[in-house]
């Protein structure tokens, strides 16, 4: 069970493994949204639903008691498309009228609506990921620093202790990261790829070297050998 630090995109579980956390794709009313021809922004889609009884057991069904009212026609809607016009609050529209709010001349087909929703969710997920990553980076920095060692030999020994070789397991060519500012060295495998570049920039890491480049690394980072 994961019990250790967890925030944003990354956490380290009790087996000392790094795990990626996928950003939520749920509706977020503060999303910047997708701009239409009129300048109005599509903020997101939601289906007002509840769990009801179906022929084959419980399933999601439309929740008409919790329906929104379409801003154009005044009818109740459970498939809600949220649009913000100018600085006004977000407004609900049905599938038949969302094109009018966004400034499209023709009604959007189901396929076009699906593409619009998918695009908004992708952009929203990226926004959430960036925000979460900014929060997670200081924690990741501390976790990785705790795993670092002062020399390449110590870094290799620590890595081998945590990742014992098993017969039949393919051997990966090792590479190392060196930080002259922090005077630490790490095996690249100990730094998740998702945070390697940001941490290199944050630490001022001078090199990511392979075994073939060790001779040059000894000259540039003599303290690490």
Describe the protein's architecture and organization.
- It is a single chain.
- It is built from five helices and 14 strands.
- It has 225 residues and is α+β, with helices and mostly antiparallel strands.
- Strand 1 (6-7) and strand 2 (10-12) form a beta hairpin.
- The two termini are 37 Å apart.
- Mean pLDDT is 75; it is low at 1-30.
Give a short synopsis of this structure.
The chain is an alpha+beta fold. The protein has 5 helices and 14 strands.
Element string (H = helix, E = strand): EEEEEEEEEEEHHHEEHEH
Rounded mean pLDDT score? 75
Reported for the largest beta sheet, the result is: 4 strands, antiparallel
What spatial order of strands do you see in the largest sheet?
Answer: 4-5-10-11
How would you classify the helix and strand content by structural class? Answer: alpha+beta
Helicity range of the residues? 25-40%
The total strand number stands at: 14
Poorly predicted regions are: 1-30
Spatial gap, N to C terminus: 37 Å
Q: Percent of residues in beta strands?
A: 15-25%
**Shape field:** elongated
């Amino acid at each position: 069970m994961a019990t250790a630090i967890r925030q944003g995109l990354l956490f380290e579980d009790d087996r000392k493994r790094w795990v990626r956390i996928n950003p939520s794709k749920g509706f977020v009313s503060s999303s910047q949204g997708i701009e239409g021809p009129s300048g109005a922004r599509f903020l997101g889609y939601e289906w007002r639903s509840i769990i009801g009884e179906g022929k084959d057991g419980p399933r999601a069904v439309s929740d008409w008691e919790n329906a929104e009212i379409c801003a154009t026609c005044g009818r109740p809607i459970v498939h809600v498309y949220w649009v913000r016009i100018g600085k006004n609050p977000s407004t609900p529209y049905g599938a038949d009228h969302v094109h009018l709010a966004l400034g499209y001349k023709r009604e959007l087909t189901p396929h076009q609506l699906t593409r619009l929703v998918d695009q908004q969710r992708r952009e929203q997920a990226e926004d959430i990921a960036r925000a979460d990553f900014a929060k997670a980076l200081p924690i990741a920095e501390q976790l990785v620093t705790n795993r670092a060692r002062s020399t390449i030999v110590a870094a290799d020994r620590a890595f081998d202790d945590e990742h014992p070789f098993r017969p039949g397991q393919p051997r990966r060519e090792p590479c190392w990261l060196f930080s002259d500012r922090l005077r630490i060295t790490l095996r690249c495998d100990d730094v998740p790829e998702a945070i390697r570049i940001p941490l290199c920039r944050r630490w001022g890491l001078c090199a990511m070297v392979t075994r073939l480049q060790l001779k040059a690394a000894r000259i540039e980072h003599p303290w690490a050998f």
